[in-house]
């Protein structure tokens, strides 16, 4: 028997430690994957890929105590050497190599040139070789940015008094769009995969006042576009005791401000690698659905074909309008038509053909749907009846309302879409670790 | 068009704000759910439930400007009143009520007495009425503790250089235990729900060196016990460049130390409500599987029936042994038999009938399985062949190894089990927000 007493100090150093001023001239131990080898004859540059970035190592014949010809790209190694300042090296330092120990070796050469600055290959190939293609520094950086977004969401909401919840993804049924749900057999009972934590987060507003969840949602929609996935990560929150749906937009704006600051402070390396200019979030315009439809139609001479919904081209034009008129990257579109919103959406008492709801568009694409919900039990029942819905399977959801619910509302943000627009990609698969679409179920 | 500029200052106060010293004597606005009403005649105590706890409000006939008889338990309200110190009140203060505005009303009386200190009802009833039963302060507190555990896991791992990933839950197939997977139809192709992010996190070690995920996993196991769920939240990490599996146990110990500190500092209210004494995590004993089996068998005079696995009773006795002999709440059991571990587990070079792996037991129950993995491609292929496995469907997983992977390992922690043992429950459903088991698919 031995005792484990907590994390140990590793004998090897990470990039941040190597870059500290007082490291120059010191002998260090470093591990990493051999990203690339540039053999110049008597001298060779061995670039190691580490989690924080690249480290240039210099092999010198006669000085370094290992054989260069035995070293393969994609091997993982541990080296010892002396830290030297070097303006031309990736992070301003390089390591003059002494010894090198191979930790593991590849069995075959790489199928993609991941050490190139831009991975010059098709999206299809990138996705087929996902565990390889992500070893490219730029490809990898997108998912660090994605991490920052999720961190920002959670840390901001903790600060605002929200409680994190974990709701089940397998369910008996759902009142929302049954046709778009994946079905499975659950111990000989029919079950579905949840397309949103909507009902659960609403029920939990009656318990914690404010809740959030970051997790997978499943949509069996037969879309095959650049913006749709059949499984994605949804950033959801729901908050009680709101004065109106404006409180939700204010909270989302607060999240975006908090997150941009976090990215700037803690993900500057990745922002630089990807050449990202962070969007302005100080003030986000909010404009009515019917109003912006008209404004866009007039300015860009485009006929309104569907008065109840926004076509992708319209979303794009609304963003263009917001940029041109208000210098805004984000724009809230409010008061969506009731017939296009789910039964639980609260209607505008001023005009019940519209709801107290909104979408948030970011650089031409919807990334959020949100709104105030009906909290009164009888009102909810009446709305369900009006839509021809039965209470079957919704007893628990309804019981929360039967026994008192505060005024509340919430929203859901598509993580991959937000990442995509932030890093400047035009296909949501580029910012999905392992996308699931109609034709892709692997890797 | 209007601009949204970020979170607004709410006009109403939360409990923490009300409890500040300089609030005494001030008039405040507060909202909340009417947890209970105690009518004493000319005076009445109205307890409001807020997200941070309970607030006692005092109605005085003639002074308060509303009619008490119209007020119902479970209504949500907004009140104005003056803050007064009060030793007997739940958090040392009470509000002498002026006005009260009803925000929403229940349609029926509560089915459970949630305002009682202990909710005196069966687990079955609690789960059937989940959105109601969780309004009980003690029931709710368990899930705040659960939040703290997940926060601790993430915050600790961010600090240790891990990257958070989001891997798909729908997959084509999996090499691990196909019989225990839920099957679904994915656009006319057979698919399964992932029972672990194992393969994905391993592949991502080749990209980010260290990764973690907190998300749902699905097990179609036909267990109906107090410790099994068919869907649960798994806290997973995987780390590269390890010197041995001891590094993983050290990292887990670091997580536990970090999290207990976080709970103590930021969840003290909930710890107090539940009467939780935090376990000791300074040093956790680690003992070999074969050794502890023998020790326990001798000390408690229990015959070893299955030399390859631990029976639940044995887990319980091992924890008892660790408590009695080493004053430990946690105990690592290392070197599990190879035949009981998956193909990717690394065998002990000293004796290949055992693996470089471990479980962590906490107060009598396994809450973690982890270990070092095979990182060499040919070794992995050989092991698969030995087990009669084909490469079909595993091409991408294997390609990560074919193209070089560092020595690595990882673990998975069952969130609901860890919460259960921490708060002192004996059924994992008590610490699962909406449990899924063989007979429960709702709510």
Automatic annotation (TrEMBL), chains A, B:
Q: Which SUPFAM superfamilies match?
A: Class II aaRS and biotin synthetases, Nucleic acid-binding proteins
> What is stated as this protein's family in its record?
Belongs to the class-II aminoacyl-tRNA synthetase family. Type 2 subfamily.
Q: Where does the record place the Aminoacyl-transfer RNA synthetases class-II family profile domain?
A: 143-443
The UniProt record gives the binding positions of ATP as 219-221, 227-229, 366, 414-417
* Keyword Aminoacyl-tRNA synthetase among record annotations: yes
**GO biological process annotations for this chain's record?**
aspartyl-tRNA aminoacylation
| Region described as Aspartate: spans on this chain | 198-201
Name of the molecule in the record: Aspartate--tRNA(Asp/Asn) ligase
Pfam families named among the record's database cross-references: tRNA-synt_2, tRNA_anti-codon
Xref: PROSITE patterns: AA_TRNA_LIGASE_II (PS50862)
Q: Which PANTHER family match?
A: ASPARTATE--TRNA LIGASE, CYTOPLASMIC (PTHR43450:SF1), ASPARTYL-TRNA SYNTHETASE (PTHR43450)
Q: Which GO terms describe its molecular function?
A: aspartate-tRNA ligase activity; aspartate-tRNA(Asn) ligase activity; ATP binding; catalytic activity, acting on a protein; RNA binding; transferase activity
For L-aspartate, which residues are the binding ones?
176, 219, 369, 373
- UniProt-annotated location(s): Cytoplasm
Entry EC number(s): 6.1.1.23
What broad class describes the main subcellular location of this protein? cytoplasm
GO CC: one term?
A: cytosol
State the reactions this protein catalyses. Answer: tRNA(Asx) + L-aspartate + ATP = L-aspartyl-tRNA(Asx) + AMP + diphosphate
Q: Which UniProt keywords apply?
A: Aminoacyl-tRNA synthetase, ATP-binding, Cytoplasm, Ligase, Nucleotide-binding, Protein biosynthesis
Classification via Gene3D superfamilies:
Bira Bifunctional Protein, Domain 2, Nucleic acid-binding proteins
Which residues are tagged with the site Important for tRNA non-discrimination? 90
Q: How does it assemble?
A: Homodimer.
């Amino acid at each position: 028997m031995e005792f484990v007493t907590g994390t140990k100090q590793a004998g090897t150093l990470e990039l941040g430690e190597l870059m500290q001023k007082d490291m120059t001239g010191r002998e260090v131990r470093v591990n990493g994957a051999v990203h690339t080898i540039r053999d110049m004859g008597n001298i060779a540059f061995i670039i190691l890929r580490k989690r924080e970035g690249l480290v240039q190592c210099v092999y010198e014949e006669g000085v370094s105590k290992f054989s260069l010809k035995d070293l393969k790209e994609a091997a993982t190694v541990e080296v010892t050497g002396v830290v030297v300042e070097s303006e031309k090296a990736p992070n301003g330092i390089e390591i003059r190599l002494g010894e090198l120990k191979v930790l593991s070796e590849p069995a075959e050469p790489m199928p993609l040139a991941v050490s190139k600055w831009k991975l010059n290959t098709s999206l299809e190939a990138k996705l087929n070789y996902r565990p390889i293609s992500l070893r490219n520094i730029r490809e990898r950086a997108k998912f660090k940015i994605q991490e920052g977004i999720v961190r920002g969401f959670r840390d901001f909401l903790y600060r605002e008094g929200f409680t994190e919840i974990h709701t089940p993804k397998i369910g008996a049924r759902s009142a929302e769009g049954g046709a778009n749900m994946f079905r499975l057999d659950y111990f000989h009972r029919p079950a579905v995969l949840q397309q949103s934590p909507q009902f659960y987060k609403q029920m939990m507003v009656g318990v914690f006042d404010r809740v959030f969840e970051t997790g997978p949602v499943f949509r069996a929609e037969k879309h095959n576009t650049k913006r749709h996935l059949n499984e994605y990560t949804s950033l959801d929150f729901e908050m009680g005791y709101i004065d109106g749906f404006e409180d939700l937009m204010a909270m989302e704006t607060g999240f975006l401000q908090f997150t941009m600051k976090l990215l700037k402070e803690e993900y500057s390396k990745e922002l630089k690698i990807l050449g990202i200019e962070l969007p302005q979030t100080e003030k986000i315009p909010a404009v009515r659905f019917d109003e912006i439809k008209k404004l866009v139609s007039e300015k860009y001479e485009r006929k309104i074909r569907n008065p109840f919904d926004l076509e992708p081209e319209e979303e794009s034009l609304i963003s263009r309008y917001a940029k041109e008129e208000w210098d805004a990257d984000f724009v809230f579109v409010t008061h969506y038509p009731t017939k296009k919103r789910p039964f639980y959406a609260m209607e505008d008492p001023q005009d019940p053909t519209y709801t107290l709801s909104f979408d948030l568009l970011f650089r031409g694409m919807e990334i959020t749907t949100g709104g105030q919900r009906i909290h009164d039990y009888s009102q909810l029942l009446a709305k369900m009846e009006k839509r021809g819905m039965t209470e079957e399977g919704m007893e628990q959801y309804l019981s929360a309302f039967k026994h008192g619910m505060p005024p509340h509302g919430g929203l859901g943000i598509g993580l991959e879409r937000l990442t995509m627009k932030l890093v400047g990609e035009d296909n949501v698969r580029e910012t999905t670790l392992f996308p699931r679409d109609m034709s892709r179920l692997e890797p």
